[in-house]
Amino acid sequence: MAKIKHNNFIDTVDEVLSGAKKEGVLHLYAEDQILNGRTLQIKGQKMFHFGTTGYLGLEQDIRLKEAAIAAIHNYGTQFPLSKSYISHPLYSELESKIEQMYGIPPIITKNSTLGHLAIIPTLIRDEDAVILDHQVHWSVQNACQLLKLRGIPVEMIRHSNLDMLEDKIKQLTSKCKKIWYMADGVYSMFGDYAPIPELLALTQKYTQLNLYFDDVHGMSWKGKNGTGFIFDAIEELPENCIVVSTLSKTFGASGATVFCRNQKLRDKIKNFGGPLTFSAQLEPASVAAAIASADIHLSPEIELKQKGLADKIDYFNQLLSNGNLPIISKNDSPVFFLGMGTPVTAYNFVHRLFKEGFFLNLGIYPAVPIKNTGIRITLSSHNQLEDITALADAMEYHFPKALEETNNSEIKIRQAFGIDSEIAEKISDSKDKELFIEEKNTIQDIMKSEWNQYMGKQNIFDWEGLVYLENTFSRHPDPTNQWDFYYFTIKDNNGNIILMTFFTYGLWKDDMLATESVSIHLEEIRKTNPLYLTSKVLSMGSLFTEGKHCFINQEHPLAEKALKILLDKLEEKYNTLNADMLVLRDFGKDNIYNKTIVDQGYFKIDMPESCVIENQVWHSYEEFTKTLSIRSRKHFNKEIEPYEKFYNVVIKDKLSKSEIVRGCQLYSNVKDNNNAINTFRYDQEIFENMNESPNWEFILLKLKAEPENLFDGVMFCYKNSNHTYVPELIGMDYKWAKEYQLYRQLLFQTIKRANELEFQKIDFGVSASFEKRKLGAQIIPKVAYVQARDNYAMEFMNTLQNDYKSIVKGLKHIDN
């Protein structure tokens, strides 16, 4: 398999969060000497606190504090022993009071993360399967990684997509004994709820379906005795349902609770649930505070506290309804999410509210899609009505100003979040008289000389190359190889071109740049479901091209403004097409427009490195080897030159019908053997069109020892205006790849042919950079910028990749 450098999901997350940290909106420190719940001091400024998850404010209740202090005096700061041996004196009382609240004996864990690690591997049997909502809390997803070592299927669906859930259930029904769907009760970013009635209906329809809920954000402020959203919605816990709740956050103490009807299962989890067995138990102070909180939950006071918070939530909802702020999920939870669309708008708005004296949480990738960046506002009992009124007024005042300062608009935000809007606005109808954008749908409508002046020396997208691409892909009968073409030109009012680019719109495999292990897994599924995990993508350039797909005259004073106009136009096109993803491709790693693009709601990913040979002119093999390093020269003299004599090399402008069939067959061999860049397979029509284009030629290698074969290797090469030679596709008979160094010989014959034709540059593609480097190729790092409707595909790819790593790690452990 050809090796490429793949993007790392963690690197992408780190870059986004590091950017937010530099903006001063993440990783902050409270400076208060005494916390009261209502205010915080940050960088010397006192702010009203609208970012807590302690919705009822119990963490500041004097009864909880005094109980914790007394417990420390009586029992010490901790009881350093596993609960498997003995629990400290307060545990029994807490368990009893929690049972009174729920009517079910609880399992108490150190926190919900350790709780999931204790429950899930014990709960899920080898014959079971798991389906995750892709917004279920990270701690649930992390615990499910342990299941993969045992070969247990762990699938994922888009957030609360019940049609997708039912499809997954149907796929797993015949393969698994129990199917567990795992979700949050209340989701921590948007404050939306799990669709409980619909899920319970599905359990009636599919008896194998079981439900597992993390309800830590639904605790205390909802339900009888404050038992939470899930218990309030289902009334009585069924046998096929597990609920994990919390003693922290709204409950005001520390720890987590687990509830299930099955006594045998409860005992099994308690007896040997990983962290329950081997981790330290809750400190006496935490348990004492939890007992004090349980007393409040078991008293009529809890209803008064719930009503007090509910009244404040209603009041805030009323204030918001008077304006037109894009609140994403309107409900009665204490969590509100104000859509911002782009990170730069969110940073601007947060700083504005900070200056006004309001602390709010940033909601950013990967917690939400990058284009769904926003502000999470949480209400608590600490907030006073005058604080809430002032916050609503400040939000209404600063929201349009933040939009104006960051080239954003409410319509863009509503489109990004899929919210209906009555606001009439056309993004592309710019009143700017300095710059004008033109859109065309075919290269035939653009002057050949003008296009080639700015774009013509690049890869297969000179004017003639785009004629070939349009003829081949724009009307292709197979939807996997059918593209729409969009050409954008931006000029100043003197007619000078500042920016020129082209985009294609078509289907991509979501794993195109994933690791080989992920693609191999998905290709098995695609044998019966060919379009599984594919997306509609509006992309700069095309899947058939690489290089600098966008010309920008950086010397022009309006260059950056032109780029912003292009980004606005692309956003409009993206929404009109209802594409799943928008991709700006093949920028240099340290390009000067990085901040401009990222600020408009894109995240940056590493692309596979390009391999390029430039300005090589040589007249003998000796001259050629002088261009190589000493090590590469030895490689050439040992692995390449001695094998040339075994081949007849033929260059053809046209192939016969039988040669096209053979070439297509050899291409398919390479495609089947290489999942490093997983694109859709090209059919014979693509190669027939090459044959009809004057810019294509074919390098054929035929083993002298195999006279019955038409040829054993082929390079399909495009000649760009006598400037760039592009070996676009390769075909090989792998029978000879190792014995006769077929691949290396094809690479060298390509270099030799480009030299004969006096091309200044060879675009050598993005895979096998190690081999190409040994023949003198320069390796060029590249990045892309991406927007997506949701994070589902990327998170699912990351899950599959972790799955593979876990299996490999497990096998190594077995070997050891």
From TrEMBL:
Swiss-Prot/TrEMBL cofactor(s): pyridoxal 5'-phosphate
Database matches in InterPro entries: Aminotransferase_I/II_large, AON_synthase_class-II, PyrdxlP-dep_Trfase, PyrdxlP-dep_Trfase_major, PyrdxlP-dep_Trfase_small
Residue span(s) of domain Aminotransferase class I/classII large: 47-388
SUPFAM superfamilies named among the record's database cross-references: PLP-dependent transferases
GO molecular function annotation: glycine C-acetyltransferase activity; ligase activity; pyridoxal phosphate binding
Domain of life, per lineage: Bacteria
Pfam families: Aminotran_1_2 (PF00155)
Keyword Acyltransferase: yes
Keywords, comma-separated and alphabetical: Acyltransferase, Ligase, Transferase
EC number: 2.3.1.29
Keyword check for Acyltransferase: yes
Protein name from the UniProt record: 2-amino-3-ketobutyrate coenzyme A ligase
Organism: Flavobacterium frigoris (strain PS1)
